């Protein structure tokens, strides 16, 4: 894009801001259609999905095209490396704005039809004023804040499905039904046109995850979203299903049977397993591969993830109940994340090792030569099987390429975001709980296959409701460094969770994501990163705050050399979550929205 073309682009995109905000105002009016029949509920659901597509397209455009060159830039214009550079120029800018304007006109047309038929109460919208001479970055930032408020207001006060009559009276004109159908088809066409300019990976992500973030932001939407067909938006409906299951557990009804009876079925008998060795678990074995024989005689190979049984009886009962709930939930949600959890069978209490185990079925491709390795072991200069003792031999592999590491980081962040959409805290999202199934026959000449990470650590996860407490399980020295300084201080003091300041918050989970990104960027365990940032000081002698500051200092100094400037900035935003310069991850839909766009999408384009 030449210097002469920039002003035309800015004026055009400034006009697009007006188009998009007007679209919001029109949609606000359309959403006031109430109590008008129920025979086009699915039609309105499709219309709403198209509006969310329009909304997320604009947000993606902001992140892909409106990027500062430097802190000294006069104008916020696309970087030369922008994926949209060849599209958002003088030649293509007008067709893009025309397509967006077409969506707006269709929304206005639908508004007119519904208003003419007495469905709508007209709302007077404030005019949108765009100053062509204003700084584009500032204008879009203000626009984004207004749009977030609009979206929050829409989702807060209206259900997912708006009911209006489609084929019978009181339509004023017979052509109205046809006009609505034609308008919807045209919106789909123009939205497809707008999305066609986006890179394929970005387009796929925002159609699944970006829209889900908006739609799942309102509890009233959950019931209707669960009924969406999976081919329309599988991630959306599956995430809503998980949230629905959680709510039914909380209410104690609606599961079709007694809740306690269902949970009791999730506890498996210790005698049904072969290959569990208490000594290995006591030595720090995180996983066990065992043979499981069901009551019906079916034999399968399973992976068991262990957590120590809390000594306090109340904490023990809570942990037992939570293990039943998370295993049942994961059993129902077979695939709801970019990081696919293994199919859950239930949980087992191994008295000989004073541990609970979350039991998952291994894939049929699993053989005796396949071992489980954690990402942590890979980072340590080699691989030690996570199912073996501390003295187990290591398997050497070549260092993954930068592209492999970036793809792994992107997959982990997007999978983690999907999990947070279900309104759970993970609490143990770190390299110790990200595993890979690797054949021992692989030699060190082979590159690591990082395409299918398995997420673990669910045994300690909990809903993010203020009434839910974390399981008081002990934390090994190896793992405690992955916790936020606030949580580490509470664990060290032994204080109970008495208020929000002591409770596990979303920012604590996102801080852990920052640590994970730092590990992947440097391909070193986080302790080594911290010690390098502290110029050789041992992590054991650092306070939690000093440990965090050492990592931040190290990332600022040279992470860009290892993984690029964008990757460094994303990592720092996660490490500073909730603070100035960090991800503002409030415990609401807006906080998740910030995580997705400011971290997830930017990571995909790094």
From TrEMBL:
In terms of InterPro entries, this protein maps to:
HeLo_dom, HeLo_sf
Gene3D superfamilies in UniProt = Prion-inhibition and propagation, HeLo domain
Domain (Prion-inhibition and propagation HeLo) ranges: 11-204
State the signal peptide span. Answer: none
* Coiled-coil intervals, chain numbering: none
Kindly give the Pfam families that the UniProt entry links to this protein.
HeLo
Instruction: Quote the protein name from its UniProt record.
Output: Prion-inhibition and propagation HeLo domain-containing protein
């Amino acid at each position: 894009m030449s210097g002469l073309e920039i002003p035309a682009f800015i004026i055009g995109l400034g006009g697009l801001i007006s188009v998009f905000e007007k679209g919001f105002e029109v949609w606000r009016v359309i959403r006031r259609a109430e109590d008008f029949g129920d025979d086009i509920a699915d039609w309105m659901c499709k219309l709403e999905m198209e509006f969310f597509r329009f909304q997320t397209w604009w947000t993606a455009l902001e992140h892909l095209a409106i990027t500062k060159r430097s802190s000294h830039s006069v104008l916020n214009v696309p970087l030369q490396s922008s994926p949209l550079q060849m599209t958002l120029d003088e030649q293509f800018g007008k067709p893009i704005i025309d397509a967006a304007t077409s969506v707006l006109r269709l929304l206005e047309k639908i508004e007119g039809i519904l208003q003419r038929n007495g469905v709508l109460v007209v709302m007077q919208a404030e005019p949108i004023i765009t100053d062509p001479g204003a700084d584009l970055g500032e204008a879009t930032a203000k626009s984004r804040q207004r749009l977030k408020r609009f979206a929050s207001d829409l989702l807060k006060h209206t259900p997912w499905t708006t009911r209006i009559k489609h084929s019978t009276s009181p339509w004023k004109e017979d052509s109205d039904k046809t006009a609505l159908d034609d308008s919807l088809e045209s919106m789909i066409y123009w939205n497809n046109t707008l999305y066609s300019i986006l890179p394929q990976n970005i387009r796929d992500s925002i159609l699944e995850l970006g829209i889900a973030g908006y739609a799942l932001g309102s509890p009233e939407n959950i019931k209707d979203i669960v009924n969406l067909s999976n081919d329309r938006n599988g991630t959306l409906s599956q995430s809503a299903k998980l949230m629905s299951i959680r709510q039914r557990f909380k209410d104690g009804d609606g599961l079709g049977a007694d809740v306690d009876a269902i949970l009791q079925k999730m506890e498996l008998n210790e005698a049904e397993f072969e290959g569990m060795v208490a000594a290995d678990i006591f030595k720090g074995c995180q996983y066990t591969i065992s043979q499981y024989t069901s009551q019906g005689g079916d034999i399968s190979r399973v992976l068991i993830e262990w957590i120590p049984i809390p000594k306090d009886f109340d904490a023990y009962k809570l942990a037992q109940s939570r293990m039943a709930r998370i295993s049942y939930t994961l059993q129902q949600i077979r695939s709801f994340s970019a990081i696919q959890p293994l199919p859950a069978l239930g949980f087992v209490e191994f008295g000989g090792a004073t541990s609970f185990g979350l039991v998952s079925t291994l894939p049929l491709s699993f053989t005796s030569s396949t071992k489980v390795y954690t990402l942590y072991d890979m980072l340590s200069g080699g691989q030690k099987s996570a199912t073996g003792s501390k003295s187990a031999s290591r398997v050497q592999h070549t260092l993954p390429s930068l592209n492999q590491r970036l793809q792994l980081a992107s997959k982990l962040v997007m999978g983690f975001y999907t999990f947070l959409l279900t309104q759970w805290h993970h609490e143990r999202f770190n390299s110790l709980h990200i595993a890979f199934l690797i054949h021992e026959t692989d030699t060190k000449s082979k590159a690591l296959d990082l395409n299918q990470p398995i997420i673990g650590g669910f045994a300690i996860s909990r809903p993010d409701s203020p009434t839910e407490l974390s399981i008081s399980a002990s934390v090994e020295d190896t793992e405690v460094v992955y916790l936020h300084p606030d949580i580490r201080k509470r664990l060290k003091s032994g204080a109970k969770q008495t208020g929000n300041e002591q409770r596990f918050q979303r920012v604590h989970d996102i801080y852990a994501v920052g640590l994970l990104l730092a590990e992947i960027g440097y391909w070193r365990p986080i302790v080594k990163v911290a010690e390098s940032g502290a110029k050789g000081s041992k992590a054991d002698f650092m306070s939690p705050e000093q440990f965090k500051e050492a990592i931040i200092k190290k990332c600022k100094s040279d992470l860009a050399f290892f993984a690029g400037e964008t990757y460094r900035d994303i990592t720092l935003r996660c490490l500073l979550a909730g603070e100035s310069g960090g991800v503002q991850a409030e415990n609401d839909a807006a906080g998740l929205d910030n995580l997705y766009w400011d971290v997830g999408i930017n990571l995909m384009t790094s």
